[in-house]
Amino acid sequence: MTEAEFDPGSVRALAFDVFGTTVDWRTGVAEQVAHLAARRGVELDGAGFADEWREMYLPSMGRVNGGERGWAYLDVLHRESLDELLERHGVGAAFDDADRAELVRAWHRLPAWDDAAAGLARLRGRYVVAALSNGGFALLTHLVKAAGLPFDCILSAELAQLYKPDPAPYLTAARLLDVAPGELLMVACHGWDLAGARGAGLRTAFVSRPLEKGPGGGADADVPADVAARDFTGLADLLGCP
Amino acid sequence: MTEAEFDPGSVRALAFDVFGTTVDWRTGVAEQVAHLAARRGVELDGAGFADEWREMYLPSMGRVNGGERGWAYLDVLHRESLDELLERHGVGAAFDDADRAELVRAWHRLPAWDDAAAGLARLRGRYVVAALSNGGFALLTHLVKAAGLPFDCILSAELAQLYKPDPAPYLTAARLLDVAPGELLMVACHGWDLAGARGAGLRTAFVSRPLEKGPGGGADADVPADVAARDFTGLADLLGCP
């Protein structure tokens, strides 16, 4: 594939991945898991549990995109993965239905990375900035509100009823924002997401999140993209946003 | 229909109509029409023209909801009405395609009513607040951003491919916000919108906008609703938002 040279002036809107790219899911989920486990008198390594839970994320969405099952909200996939994981750890009996619902909601309230709000505010001065995540519309609305992130609008794979990296959510985002796919810049810290965006004709920005999976956790690095930045304020610098 | 007594505590999210309720379409469109007409050396009463244009709004959407035609974006309906209106005034020759596109975009940048931003900010402290308009998703995103209105998210009839007052946009909004229809409060200054919302099972708040259609222009008054307020800050008072 021959990459056309990237011209920041051709970009009219930015779409941001959320889990990992904008918010620190690992710290947030780990703390909430550890907290509830302690209340239930169960020993669980919160961070390790969060990592295992997240590892089930892409496969669970792949079953929707592959047509093995119809559309299922991310909360439903998270719940199924959680049920399986609690059994695997032999602690299923300690968590009732309400506990499990609370754990699923851990993904609804997660801390933003330190640079996220400030970087978005600068980028928003020049571009339309949208959240574009596999999280559901309501989940994202609550998450973005609680974290105080200044997005112009919320977009979600739910609106396409298919998950990233299928082309549908990227193209739905471009259509709703009334821009051509090549005028939309997808910002993410994951190679699989940017590859999906590129395949749909979007431009891509890689932001590194070295601590996404913990120290030494193997966060994506050196991902092919039109531009690469250390964080959201670095991206604002690169795109010339005051 | 027996109205259940309204309990503000049962409301989990607020959906706001935009044209007329949140922004002053008449002043905004009139100024932009008058400005372009002057540049083209044509005499046009901007406010009168805006009124006539707006009068074609409900009938044009009715043809989509009634199945006479498939989904058509509000910009398309606005353009068709504009073309007809310019001919009616005998000034069609003065406005080329670019002029007409510019006039359609007048509906994308409109001034907010004075109380809107402050009222929304207070309401947002307690509730999820969404824009829910017949304007398209991109149109609303641009309009809300330019006017500096602190909505948590943008919703649009475009997501349902049917226009208010059809039940579909109201129910789509509730579904995406993950609330029951009865937990969503529709805020509008138009009786037809609140009647549609009520028919879909939403709760309703009437906000009066006596100048929406100009002095003596016949803005809706005394519309049946669960609550009525003089403006958005009055609504924040009524709902106990500090």
Q: Report the β-strand fraction of chain A as a percent range.
A: 5-15%
Question: Given the helix and strand composition of chain A, which structural class is it?
Answer: alpha/beta
Q: Average the pLDDT over all residues of chain A and give the rounded result.
A: 96
Number of helical runs of chain A?
10
Query: What's the total count of β strands of chain A?
Result: 6
Amino-to-carboxy terminus distance of chain A: 33 Å
CATH class value of the largest domain in chain A: Alpha Beta
CATH-assigned fold name of the largest domain in chain A: Rossmann fold
Q: What's the name of the CATH homologous superfamily of the largest domain in chain A?
A: HAD superfamily/HAD-like
The figure for the number of domains of chain A is: 2
What topology does this entry show?
Two copies of one chain form a homodimer.
Chain A: E1 13-16, H1 25-39, H2 46-55, H3 57-65, H4 74-88, H5 97-104, H6 116-124, E2 128-133, H7 137-147, E3 153-156, H8 167-177, E4 184-188, H9 191-199, E5 203-207, E6 227-229, H10 232-238
Parallel strand pairs in A: 1-2, 1-4, 2-3, 4-5, 5-6
Helix pairs in contact in A: 1-2, 4-5, 6-10
Would you write up a description of this structure?
- Two copies of one chain form a homodimer.
- The first copy, chain A, is of the alpha/beta class and about 240 residues long.
- In chain A, α7 links the parallel β2 (about 130-135) and β3 (about 155).
- The model of chain A has no long low-confidence stretch (mean pLDDT about 95).
- Chain A has helices at about 25-40, 45-55, 55-65, 75-90, 95-105, 115-125, 135-145, 165-175, 190-200, 230-240, and strands at about 15, 130-135, 155, 185-190, 205, 225-230.
- Chain A has a six-stranded parallel β-sheet with strand order 3-2-1-4-5-6, sandwiched between helices.
- Chain A contains ten helices and six strands, in the order βααααααβαβαβαββα.
- The first copy, chain A, is about 45% helix and about 10% strand.
- Chain A has two domains: about 5-25 and about 110-240, HAD superfamily/HAD-like (Rossmann fold, 3-Layer(aba) Sandwich); about 25-110, Orthogonal Bundle (DNA polymerase, domain 1), CATH 1.10.150.
- In chain A, α1 (about 25-40) crosses α2 (about 45-55).
